[in-house]
Each structure stands twice: as C-alpha cells, then as structure tokens.
Design goal:
The complex is a heterodimer of chains A (473) and B (282).
Chain A lengths: L21 H4 L12 H8 L20 H9 L3 H11 L3 H7 L6 H4 L11 H11 L5 H6 L8 E9 L3 H12 L2 E6 L8 H4 L8 H13 L3 E3 L10 H6 L4 E4 L4 E3 L12 E3 H8 L19 E5 L3 H12 L4 E5 L11 H9 L3 E3 L2 E8 L5 E14 L5 E14 L2 E4 L3 E3 L1 H6 L25 E3 L2 H4 L4 H19 L1
Parallel strand pairs in A: 1-2, 1-4, 2-3, 4-15, 6-13, 7-8, 7-13, 8-9
Antiparallel strand pairs in A: 5-14, 10-11, 11-12
Helix pairs in contact in A: 2-3, 2-7, 3-4, 4-7, 5-7, 9-18, 13-14
Chain B lengths: L2 E10 L3 E7 L1 H6 L5 E5 L7 E9 L4 E7 L3 H8 L5 E2 L1 E6 L10 E7 L2 H14 L3 E8 L8 H7 L2 E6 L6 E2 L2 H11 L3 E7 L2 H11 L5 E5 L15 E4 L2 E4 L6 E3 L5 H8 L3 H14 L6
Parallel strand pairs in B: 8-9, 8-12, 9-10, 10-11, 12-13
Antiparallel strand pairs in B: 1-2, 1-6, 2-5, 3-4, 3-7, 4-5, 13-16, 14-15
Helix pairs in contact in B: 2-8, 5-6
Chain lengths: 473, 282
C-alpha cells in the first residue's frame, strides 16, 4: 500500500500558518506569521506527491531541489533538508518569507490545479529557521570546515543587497575572497531599508549576513560605488572580478500637481525612515516621521502593501491603497494583499491619481482621484484602465505614500561612462552570465532589470557568481 | 569602527564648531560642492553636512556645523579623539568650476565654511575670486582669515556694522554688480532667505547664480527623494542632481516648507535630549 502513488484527490487542504491576530499585530512591528512547528511542517511536507518530474523546481529562479528537501523533511531530517536548499540558495530564511511563491514554485505545483499547492515557501522558512547550525561554516557549506580563503583571488561587489549577498555566499564557499562595498551604514539592501520588520525580521537578515562574514566575506559600509570608490579604483586595486548590485534607485513620483507638498513621501523614504532609521521608536532613535491619521498609499505592488501596513502600525486611523486597475491585477504577493485586507486597509481600486491638494497650512490635505473602469485588453493581455469622464473623488489625507516604482540611480552609471546601458537606462548585462560591456565586470538585480523581486536578484547573482568562479578557478 | 575627530575648534562657542575628521578615502575624492552624510551613533539619524575643506595628504576632511537640533547639539558635544560612527561620501555633484573671470562667492553664517571650499576651487582654477561674507556681528564671521589667505578681495557685511558694511550682503552685492560688469558668476551659500535674496538681486543683471541647497536628506544617495526640490518647474533630487542649482530657477518657498516639515518632531527630540543630557547648559 505504502508504495502506491497518491493522487491529488487524496490530499487534504494546506496546514494553516500560525499568525498574530490582525487586531493585535497592527499595534506592533513583530513578525506577522509565526512559522510552523515541526509537526505542522512534517504534515505539510507529507502533502507533497513527490512527482517523478517535479515542476516546482522549474518555477524557482535559483532552482532549489524542492522535491528532495521536502522528502528529507518528511523524514524529519531538518539539517539534510537545509543542506539541499543551501546548495543553491544562500538566503533561505529570507526567501521563505518574501518570495512570490504563488507565481514561482507553488504556482507550478501540480496540487494547485484542483487543490492548494504544497506550502513550499513556508517549509523553506521552517527549515532555515529550525536548522541551528553548530557554526556558521556548517550553515553555509554543509560541512564543519570553512573553505580556505584564497587571498590571491578577490572579487568586489558594489552594494550589499540580495544579489551581492548571493554572489558573496557562492564565491566564498569556493574559497574566493569577496569584499562588499555598501553605500548605507548597514548591509542587506532592500532587506534592511525596504522590507519591514513585521514581514522580515532584521535579526534574520543579520544572521544570514553574519554567516557570510564567518566565511571570510568582508563588508565595508559607507562606501558608495561611484563616489567613495569607482570601478576603475577596484580594478587598480587588483580585484579579479567586480559585481554591480546597487539596486534600482530613484523613486518615481506621479508628476501631478502637489507632488512635492509636505506630507507626500516616496515609499522608499517612508520605509527607509521607519526600517533603516527605526522611526517607529522615535525619539529613542533620532530619525523622525510624522504621525498621520489618514494615509493614502498609491500603487499595487509589495512596496505599496509594506507602506500601507507600516502606516497602520505607526498609528494611522485610516489607510487606503489607491490603484488604477482592480485588485486582481495587483502585482503584490497574494499573502501581503490578504494580510493588508485583514488589517483593515481599504483598497480603492479603479482610482487614478490626479492631484495632491494643500490645506491652509500648505501641507497635504486631500488627494483628487479619477474614477476608472477596465477597458479592452492591451498588448500585455491585461485590461487597461480607462477614465470615466467627469467622475472624480477627493480623498482626505494628511500623508500620501507613492509606491509606483523606481528609475535608474545615476551615481555609479555617471561615474562609469564605459558601462553600456539598455534602452531603459539600466545596465546592459548578458542574461546568461551577467557580464556587462566591461570585461570581468558583472551586474545583476534591479540595476539590470528595473525593480523586481529579491529572488530574481538572487538568481542573477547566482548566475554571475557561477561564471566568475568558472573564470577564476 | 568609526571616524576619528582629529581636531575640534569651537568657532562660536555652543553654536558652531569645526571638526577635522580622519577619512582618507573621502578626502581622496572630495571636491568643492560635495557633502557627507554622517550618523553619530547606533541610534542616530543620517544628516548631510557640506565638506568645508579636505587635505588629501593628511587624509582628512573638515566639516563646520551649526547647532540647529538634537543631532547637531549631540555632535557638538563630541571632543577630539571621539569617533563619529558613520561618515559617508563624498556625495552630490561637485561644483562646476572653470576659468571664466570674476566670481563672487557669497557666504552667510555657517554657509561661509562651505562657500570657502568652492571659492578655493575657483581660485585654483585661475578665477578672480571676490568673497562676500555676512553675519550678525563681527565675531560670528567664520573663515575670514582663511578667505583672506587666497581671495584678492574679501568684502564684509554685518547687521550691527561692527565691521564692513552695516546691513546685508545683498546690498554690497548689488552695489558691486552695478559697478562691475565683469562678474561672470555669483555663488551663494547660506540660509535659504539669503540665497533667495541673492538670486533676486542678481537676476536683473543676468549674472549666472549658483546656490547650494541644504535640503533634508535620509540616504543622500538618490534612494528616497526626501531632498526633492523644484528647479525650473521640474523635480530634482538635491543629493544626486545637486546640491547646487541655478538660483534663478529654484522654487525657494517650496524648499522652505520642506525644510520645516519635521519641526514638531525636531522640537520633541531636542526637548528629550535637553532633559536627559546632564552636562547641557552648564
């Protein structure tokens, strides 16, 4: 009986993820989802059909051998499962929390056709959190010995976000000396300044970063690529290869009247103040933000969800999300949207921003939006929003947070005229190797693709690191 | 690991200080017009300060700051030998400097320090540099000796007439522009009302006028847009597009409103600091 293959119809629903109740968690910054227990994780793992030809792995940008790690987890071999993940993913505790699994691994899971897919992301997170390595070397290499650092080979990464951390993890495990040059005062990039504590605790990022340090990776903060140090300087200093992972950069604003009013923030500014600056603990921390009662967030992606949920936790009475299309077209991770709605964040769909309006004090007082409806599908197949003539609405708000994406940060690009750019102004890089127009200079993540996900940046970092290792070793 | 303060000079006791900071990598790259972002300690905020000078050989940069809030008050309590946790830079676009003729560099208050670095750059490029500095009274005039060291002309205005012209720098500037048609550029650094007034004075003369904006910043590397300002009707980021812009095109009233946006929080922070800081006010 045991060997008889199970059918999708035999499998029960997903094990629910324990989480803080919505009314409680909107008053704190602690992590919303609490994580599985071992029993819950094993029970969820047992839902996996162990397909002969698993599709989930194809859906993963770093091609984790998902089937194998789940099989190990069913056997309660947590460290074995960790080793499988770690072979291709250097930040599993992060990815388990922030990947858009529904459009990647879980989106491909065969169970998802008629039932709910296996909760792969939650299992990955469980394994990463539960695996208490006896030391950091074990955590990274899967052995008790750290790879010897080959001081004769050195690679520099500009930026210390997901892409660079992945490059560092991969190359360090091959014994290559890696130095990360980070512009801000803390490494982690978007994992630190962007994604809020309640979704990705900083201690998790810190643990992953420390594990890299223990492997001999050097991290220098306050070094701005293109300002404090240039690519030319790094080449002159003898770095054998350079990886550029500086992120997307400048926030876009709406280009409507009142864009620069006091009270209008970019999501980057608002989140950086609260996350990197710990403004949620002002005045114990010096970085301020104001207390707002009526907050409007513009955008439909993960950043918009993060900003809206942060505003709620900062004490706003009403938070709404203004979006041009409908909830179905929102690019945000499904779980974030659900969590936002549970936290009483109002979704104002089919509203296009027209203007921010000042009150007598000169500060933001209302926002005017244009009512829209969905028209014919455009080239991308999505139904595009169309204005409903004459129908506008004025929304009272004392804070507006604009989360409509970014454009390329010019600092490194202006300092490196030899670097060829693509037609969108991002760095042109070989999709297979990540190499730029400059020899042995690689790039990956948002500075190549424009704003995307943590995991796609990590995928790019991994491909570049593989190529670098191939050339150097 | 931090950045050591090698020298502290209280230029105006309790109000304005000069630090020489050990920062070889920044010194190597610093140009007139650049700024740094500093963070004093783990709980600190990131604040921008203009680089007033650098010594590439010694590997140092000089900053001069006015105590305006909690962070600068705390900074002013640091002494020689203390560390500043984070110093990041040099940031912003360097001043555009070319040999062009006569350049009048106007500095007000603490802005004189930043102006001094730019004046030096223009002088090194072979321009005839006229320094024009102003303050309430004589002993608040910073960098007068340093400017006298290389500027062929240093003009002074004080509110109380204790030295130089009694009144504003703008009056001296207007008089000079009326008499001297060889002025190719005016650079103004100081309080926003002063820079705005300078731009108003120079406009009828059609003289190129450069101002340096001291916007609120968070990262200082283009990520957040806190420092955005309107120049010629377009939104610019002071940290990556500036901090220097054409003074005739800057929307100064928007700049002033944005500079005051956290007034309430700044007062709260300062109040807490004063209460907790036992050595303050002694």
């Amino acid at each position: 009986m045991e060997n008889k293959p199970r059918k999708p119809a035999d499998i029960g629903p997903r094990i629910p993820m324990p989480e803080q109740p919505a009314d409680e968690r909107v008053r704190n910054f602690s992590e919303v989802t609490l994580g599985f227990t071992l029993d819950q994780a094993v029970e969820e793992a047992e839902r996996c059909l162990q397909c002969k030809k698993p599709l989930c792995q194809k859906g993963c940008p770093v091609e984790i051998d998902i089937k194998s790690f789940i099989a190990k987890l069913v056997d309660k071999d947590v460290s074995g499962a960790y080793e499988v993940i770690r072979k291709t993913n250097s930040l599993p505790a992060v990815c388990g929390r922030v990947c858009p699994q529904e459009s990647q691994c879980e989106g491909m899971c065969i169970l998802g056709k008629k039932n709910e897919p296996v909760a792969i992301g939650r299992l990955e997170r469980y394994i990463a959190d539960a695996f208490m390595a006896s030391d950091a070397c074990e955590e990274i290499t899967g052995t008790h010995e750290c790879a010897l650092v080959r001081e004769d080979l050195q690679v520099a990464c500009i930026g210390a976000g997901p892409a660079s951390l992945t490059v560092a993890g991969y190359l360090a495990s091959k014994g290559i000396k890696v130095t990360l040059f980070e512009g801000l005062h803390e490494p982690g990039g978007v994992l630190i300044y962007g994604i809020p504590e309640f979704r990705l605790p900083k201690s998790i990022v810190g643990r992953e970063v420390n594990a890299l340090k223990d492997l001999g990776v050097e991290i220098r903060t306050n070094w701005v690529g293109g300002k404090t140090i240039t690519i030319q300087d790094l080449q002159d200093d003898g770095y054998d290869a350079i990886f550029i992972g500086v992120g997307a950069g400048l926030p876009r604003f709406l280009n409507i009247p009142g864009d620069n009013l006091v009270g209008v923030f970019s999501a980057n500014e608002y989140l950086t103040r609260v996350n990197l600056g710990r403004a949620y603990d002002f005045p114990n921390y010096d970085t301020p933000t104001f207390k707002a009662n009526d907050v409007v967030v513009i955008g439909g992606g993960n950043v918009a969800m993060d900003a809206a949920r942060t505003a709620k936790r900062m004490g706003a009475e009403r938070v709404s999300i203004v979006y041009r299309r409908t909830q179905d077209e929102m690019p945000a991770r499904l779980e974030e949207l659900h969590h936002a709605i549970e936290e009483a964040i109002e979704i104002r769909a089919l509203c296009g921003p027209l203007a921010f309006n000042p009150g007598e004090s000169g500060r933001l007082e209302t926002m005017t939006v244009q009512k829209m409806c969905l028209g014919e599908p455009d080239d991308s197949g999505r139904r595009s929003p169309v204005c409903i003539e004459g129908e506008t609405e004025e929304i009272p708000c004392d804070m507006a947070v604009v989360a409509v994406g970014t454009r390329p940060n010019p600092i490194l690009l202006e300092a490196t005229p030899d670097l060829e750019l693509n037609k969108w102004g991002y760095i042109a890089a070989d999709p297979e190797t990540g190499e730029t127009s400059m020899e042995n200079v690689f790039a990956g993540g948002d500075i190549v693709t424009g704003a995307a996900t943590v995991i796609s940046a990590m995928g790019a970092g991994r491909r570049a690191a593989q190529e670098i290792a191939k050339r150097l070793l | 690991m931090g950045f050591k303060i090698l020298k502290k000079e209280e230029l105006i006791p309790g109000q304005t200080s000069l630090f020489v900071i050990d920062a070889p990598q920044i010194a190597k790259k610093a140009m007139p017009g650049n700024f740094v972002i500093i963070r004093i300690d783990e709980n600190g905020e990131r604040i921008p300060l203009t680089i007033a000078d650098k010594d590439r050989e010694a590997g140092t940069i000089t900053i001069v700051f006015l105590v305006v809030g909690k962070s600068t008050a705390q900074l002013n309590m640091l002494q020689e030998g203390d560390d500043i946790l984070d110093v990041c830079g040099p940031l912003g676009k360097a001043t555009h400097i070319e040999k062009q003729g006569t350049v009048i560099c106007v500095g007000g208050g603490t802005g004189i320090a930043a102006m001094h670095h730019i004046a030096k750059g223009h002088w090194e490029a072979g321009n005839h540099v006229v320094a024009l500095i102003g303050a309430r009274t004589e002993n608040l005039l910073l960098f007068r000796c340093e400017l006298n060291g290389f500027c062929p002309e240093v003009m002074v205005a004080t509110d109380d007439g204790s030295v130089g012209h009694k009144g504003f720098v703008t009056e001296v500037l207007k008089d000079r522009l009326e008499r001297d048609s060889n002025v190719t550029e005016v650079v103004a650094i100081g309080p926003v009302p002063m820079m705005e007034a300078v731009a108003k004075v120079t406009e009828p003369f059609g003289v190129k006028t450069t101002v340096s904006l001291n916007s609120i910043m968070v990262d200082g590397i283009g990520m957040c847009g806190a420092c955005r300002c309107s120049v010629d009707g377009k939104t610019k980021f002071a940290c990556v597009d500036g901090p220097e812009f054409d003074g005739h095109k800057v929307d100064f009233s928007e700049l002033k409103a944005r500079l005051w946006q956290f007034k309430e929080q700044e007062d709260e922070s300062m109040g807490k600091f004063k209460k907790e800081c036992t050595c303050h006010g002694k």
